[in-house]
């Protein structure tokens, strides 16, 4: 029998999962599908390219992908609004409990889903269990011939074969901004930094920031009535709000 | 001393002047031979020098194992899982199909042995050993398959709860962790359970052999001499194990099913998966046992005495019942998922039947239901070893297809239609064939090293069985042994 | 590092350091003249984990977006948009992001080389003999026998060669780029000249409009300045201060712009002018009053019949267009036909209906860049054809090529490769081993854009006149040399007129000379009294721009009194209209960057290959399926490509992206896909642009399959192979 205090604890946990710390708002109406975010993400996060064969076989490693569907038949055919799909940084993530090695865990400090590359043994259970299908696996050691590795971002681990990876909300940028703010004795200011995808987006369709700060742009946007969260019904508490097109 | 059909009549005529031959011909338990002779028959089947055919098959299997299992696995480890067929969204493929398949196979051994032992089903006696060996050897293949699946198999020990300075433990929230514990427990307990009834036979073999075999059996027999005290301890231990291993067995396949049922995926998230998987495992396991028995009977010396059509008949009945059970659970699973009307599940069910691999779905139903039902209802057909073992093969194909449908085919459909993609196996195929060959190889080696027939159990049964005349009626009576 | 540490090297390092320091700490530009220090002791290289940021200009296309590049310990790590550059305001496109894969490309030309033309084997030469070779080429031939062919970027090199040409009598440099060919810049400029009496690139203030009719202009993907036009699109859509704007796209193959449009009108290729005129007439009729000469002749019913757009639709659109602040934009394949100029004029004239000329949300003429006196456009294809003819006729004995790859970019019907045989000496300054460099006698590689000095004039896209500045963000990775330095040194060696023509010690001094006039101007983003300070600011900010907008209102007095022509174009023989479009991720020079190859095309999500888009109905009739390899045959050539059943294309039209089909250009580009330019003829429209969309083609089956990697799921997106129709 659940007692009243038990229920309170559950509620508390749920509200924590729902709340979160970092969040994103994506406006599908103005996303043009130009792939700048995809390229920016790859450059920032040392994501390997996999070549034509593997990319055609569903092994491309984009951490963010832009989905579009079709509605209707020619000539009344329409492209659905572009939908950038990336890790939703769920408050109650389905990927986390299923990892037998604790390689994907919830960060208490940042309220993000972390992927600990070094701890991953590659069961790929997390990827199966991710309803958003946004995890990418290092199927091979994808070679980047010299001198391409000169471009590697030293703030981001380079992953080897057999390891799962996914969008981190550019946690290296979060930490850098926090360290800087701390050394200057202040809080991180909204808009002081942003994720690589949001920074590149020529349409400004991606807004990133603190959703636990009611003053921040992202939390104000995410409160708008036409925002939706994907697969919310699964109880994952995704931290990305989408504005559908039209 | 040979045993075949022609001589049988002569033998019978000598020993049983009173008739009732059809009982004896039919039932091993009613057809006793002198203990020494029976022991010799078992020893002979084991120790006779292998024929060139044996070596040929052994050689071919070894080559397949060397290439399919070891070379291909080395490549898999060095080059990465990319040379397999897994992709987004089918992150799991044939490696896990094979894992579930081999765990299923391994089920039958314990089922036959433990359940039948607990319920005192007498027909079990000659083939418990063959079935238990399947458990152990099948689990070895399952272990191989799951390790092949890992992206970084060299770190597999991170999945084990071993003490370490960083206080890092496996995540006990993960069904995979439960799985690992369940399978390990099952492997250990089933190996023990295989070993205990083996002790008297090893002691027998020790007494009847020379040279390296003597040393081998002496070591394994643990000094068993057959005193009353030893028998009492052994029976006790076997009894405990037989009872204890049943829940373990149920838990293993239930937990295997939770790997799927606990996930938030259409087609997987189903509460009936536990029993459904257990019945499925028994289905394939029984099918495998019957194939093994048919092969043993056909290829090994003196086995036609021990393994008789009555056994095929008895197992055939079980197979029929299990097939019906499987059909029941299948229907249950399908019905509830379909009725639920979730749009992704609906799409998945359509995909199962009408997708590019829809033939698999129909083949599964034919192999698992239509063929067993069509053949096994008839006592005559049921007693034909080759026919029943063909059914066994079909059931195994069907059950393999079932797991293939549950894993890579169901993974194709998820809640993100943008990612739906088919799975095409790569190096899984040589590796899968490699595990099968390794299973056969282990069996062949075992047939030359340990008595495949638990001869003491047969003799014990024969002692307990008697033909008694009540008036004109001849009745089989079984006396309580313990 | 060599003992001879030139002033240029010194400036490079010092400037680089100073610009950063200034950006990061706000130090004055005086710190630019730091003491010469060994490389390893420069403070910004001494702190592990400390990034330094340099402002520069993107060279992936000619738009001139400002970049800020993050570097660590001498390596470039990440490019971001320069937030203060008025053109891109901190944003970049995918190509700008991937420019680092050009810098660190494994297939760069690492040393000056000499080769037998067309032969992949080569041998290295040293820079002294390379300079001597250039000097000999300048000295040993008559000035009129020396020609420069250059790309659309960078502008400072073009200015240098132009000045050199003016001083020595060699041929003025000719610039070309496939992008400007597909954008039909000459047509746009000519249409502006015809209608407004002044040549120039029109600027369309999409963001300020309420309704936008785009006639094939793919401004979200590749057109003119996609980053800034995307901003315009966002302005159109965002409903902060006004109603959410409405975009209607008229084109026969849905581009990404069409995909984002609220309405997509698949008119028959070539009827854009007719439709524009019909809409103009219907719109004016809906308002009542006399019809001006421009729209008087068109018969809307006839236009509807010919274009395949129903009269009701035309009327509805016309009313919509007439009733609010609307804007019509010409562009894309509709200009690349024999009636291209008429289309451009008709669509531009349509803007007379809302009379938006020179008003917010309307049509302007782009501002001239700060050091530009009149609009300069790259060569039209016709001018290129004349240039190639001169090469073939042996009029040019020496050809210098920089920043362009005409063997790949020009259609095969204008056979640049064959014409090269008429040139005695071909010297390429290519950074990458492209097809043209393969056909050159020498390749004296220039630095990569991120290793270079320079500037780029922003031709269009910003209301403010902008001169984007470039500086090296890393020291050169290979044994390459700035082309201006090579030319300066060679000019000294050549002696005579050359020795005195360009009195500069090095590239930086030349750049400074070009910046000096800006110091006089008022209203700039910064000011300084001495050139060194000014130049340091220029590097630091990534350029110089006027603070106030300077868009020019076109003179529209005469617009409606023109005779506008709605006739349909002529097409070369064939069955299907061919719509070639530029891949927004690869364009003409992206194919060698692996991450650009791996980016899905926005419309089809295809990676790493070439495809041909066919309407599913047509594919069914032809009996071809997805990934069937088909041969596309035009009067002028043929290519093979795999079928992509594209639901948003007219059944009588097929489309092929431009960007792949390289035969050289490094491991990631070579022997991959096909080049639709092989199908083009050499007919020009009235403005001299190639009628690249003016061919019709036949499709032949080959019976082969060719997998095309795509990100999307054929099952999930098209409902194929699902067992039941996908909802």
Short précis:
The complex is a heterotrimer of chains A (246), B (482) and C (727). Chain A is an alpha+beta fold.
Number of strands of chain C: 25
State the major sheet of chain B: 2 strands, antiparallel
Strand order of the biggest β-sheet of chain C = 5-4-16-15-14-6-7
Radius of gyration of chain C: 26 Å
Side-by-side strand order of the widest sheet of chain B: 1-2
CATH fold naming of the largest domain in chain C: Dimethylsulfoxide Reductase, domain 2
Share of helix of chain B, binned: over 70%
Mean pLDDT of chain C: 89
- Derived from helix and strand composition plus strand pairing, the structural class of chain C reads alpha/beta
Assign an overall shape of chain C.
Answer: globular
Question: What labels describe this entry?
Answer:
heterotrimer, A: about 250 residues, alpha+beta, Alpha-Beta Plaits, four-stranded mixed β-sheet, two-stranded antiparallel sheet, 12 strands, globular, C: about 725 residues, alpha/beta, N-terminal domain of TfIIb, Rossmann fold, Dimethylsulfoxide Reductase, domain 2, 4 domains, six-stranded mixed beta barrel, 26 helices
Structural notes for this entry:
- The complex is a heterotrimer of chains A (246), B (482) and C (727).
- With 246 residues, chain A is of the alpha+beta class.
- Chain A is globular, with a radius of gyration of 19 Å.
- Chain A has helices at residues 4-19, 36-44, 51-56, 95-98, 125-129, 171-183, 196-200, 217-222; strands spanning 22-27, 64-67, 70-71, 78-79, 83-86, 104-106, 113-115, 136-137, 164-165, 206-210, 227-228, 240-243.
- Chain A has a single domain, classed as Alpha-Beta Plaits (2-Layer Sandwich), CATH 3.30.70.20.
- Chain A is built from eight helices and twelve strands.
- With 482 residues, chain B is mostly helical.
- Chain B has a single domain, classed as Formate dehydrogenase/DMSO reductase fold (Up-down Bundle), CATH 1.20.1630.10.
- Chain B is built from 18 helices and two strands.
- Chain B has helices spanning 5-15, 21-26, 35-47, 52-79, 94-118, 128-149, 175-208, 211-221, 228-261, 273-299, 303-306, 309-340, 343-354, 358-376, 379-382, 385-412, 428-449, 455-464; strands at residues 465-470, 473-478.
- In chain B, strand 1 (465-470) and strand 2 form a beta hairpin.
- Chain B is globular.
- In chain B, 48% of the residues are buried.
- By secondary structure, chain C is of the alpha/beta class.
- Chain C starts with 6 loop residues before the first helix and ends in a 9-residue tail after the last helix.
- A seven-stranded mixed β-sheet of chain C has the order 5-4-16-15-14-6-7.
- The chains are: A alpha+beta (246), B mainly alpha (482), C alpha/beta (727).
- At the A-C interface, helix 2, helix 3, strand 2, strand 4 and helix 7 of A face strand 3, helix 3, helix 4, helix 9 and helix 10 of C.
